[in-house]
Amino acid sequence: MLLDDSVDDAAFARQVTQSTRKRRPTGALRYEISRRLVERSADNMILAVETYNRPTLKNRMDGFAMLFCTAWEQLLKAEMIEASGENAAYRPSKPGRRRETLSLDECLQHHFGDKDVVRKNIERIAELRHAATHFVVPEIQAPFAYVFQSGVLNYARRYRDLMQAPFLPRANIGLLALAGQGEEIDAAALQHLYGADLGAEIADYSTQLEDEIAEVSDERFAVRVEVTIRFASDKGGASPDVTLVKASEAPANAVVLYKPTDPERTHPYRTLELCELITQKLGHKFSTYDLQCVLHKTGWKKADNSYHRLQQNPDTHKYSVQAVEEIVRLLTAHDTYLKKAKESYRRTSRSRSKAEPP
């Protein structure tokens, strides 16, 4: 008999015992309604994972949250029915009204203690489901991917305890690999995309979740997926043919690797928006002419860089948060910086005018 090497002592005893009183045959639940609930629960969890693993879906986070919560609610109700009878999953009936089943929150209260980590994981994802109509945005995907991963693994263990079988065949277990690539939340970019209030709220929520993941530090709440790239050599222990180093430590003949980024997130501001932000930070007017003088002096518009990017079709100059901070720093650190930038810009303009044919 093949046994899962990850089972605990109690699960091992259930698998090897010959007593039918202690060991339930796979899928042999006492009640038809609980059997149907478990089947639908597994289908919903599989669909949740499949939904999240489709990167082209813009609403995959809220889709996952809704299906995930439904799957857990159905599984917990099935357990209650098996333990206490068919009426266990219903609220007390009221005259003249149809019977109502327990909510997910009520099921969690019945099965888990207030400080249970698995319950905390489900509740965080349930919060996402409740906010799905207005709050779920791609920018909070990174920390939630870790919470999602734990939620699926918690469900898999709970399902196995009830049914004595995995909810997915072993050959398909790869579907559980929900990997998230974390990126630092840019509060300023969020406020530009979603407005000051909602942008700040999203940034705070993501930061709080990251802090909670670090504080709980339990794989049942969140599983961080860490990816490390190493280059090995097949020359009997010789040095690797390729070595990754920081740009500051790279030799002159190094090949530079660039990480693709979304320009709408890295360079969200147009010219007028950039001037307005700088005006707010300086406390006095900063005009588009002032900006052109500073850009002439810095040379940012000569190429795409961390401060400036030329968006094509149609050609539009876009600027980053770093551009705002650097311009404010230059103007506040040097009282004459803007004056000298204007003088340099005027000299260049006059030289160009003289060079042009009449």
Q: Please state roughly what percent of the residues sit in beta strands, choosing from under 5%, 5-15%, 15-25%, 25-35%, 35-45% or over 45%.
A: under 5%
What's the Cα radius of gyration? 29 Å
Rounded average pLDDT: 79
**What is the overall shape?**
elongated
Q: List low-pLDDT spans.
A: 1-5, 15-26, 174-180
Number of domains: 2
Distance between the termini: 95 Å
As a percent range, the share of helical residues equals 40-55%
Adjacency order of strands in the biggest sheet = 1-2
The major pleated sheet works out as:
2 strands, antiparallel
Number of strands: 2
Number of helical elements: 13
- What would you call the structural class? mainly alpha
Order of helices and strands: HHHHHHHHHHHEEHH
